[in-house]
Amino acid sequence: MPTNGIFSKTISALERSLDLRSLNQRVLASNIANMDTPNYKAVELGVAEEMKRTKEPKRAIALVRTHAYHIPLKPRDHHGVKLKTAKAPDFSLRGDGNTVDIDRTMGKLAKNTLLYNAAAQLISDKFKGLKNAMKGGSQ
Known about the structure:
This protein is α+β, with helices and mostly antiparallel strands. Helix content is 47%, strand content 12%. It is elongated, with a radius of gyration of 18 Å. The two termini are 25 Å apart.
């Protein structure tokens, strides 16, 4: 298996996944925070698409501001991440132009949290395996 130093490509992929999931958590939280803001257009991050697009470990990922008035996030190596306007709900009783669907967003938030925790557990297990190997096997 090809490695990057002592770390496998799996660890690099898990690290990118954790970074993207963390960024996605902030994007979803921002949508929830703006659920009562008139004319706010919900945004989303396609984590799977970004993982495919940024397969290269050395490729940086960045947040792109969609409006000049948005508060810039302080990303950690997030050059090039593309946020897109979320699909507007098929039916809405709201007349204020806001496209946040709180039920859909909360579902995405729960899914993102589960996937973040799974990636964190996997990377933790990888590091435990490396630690065990450095100690000389199962002692």
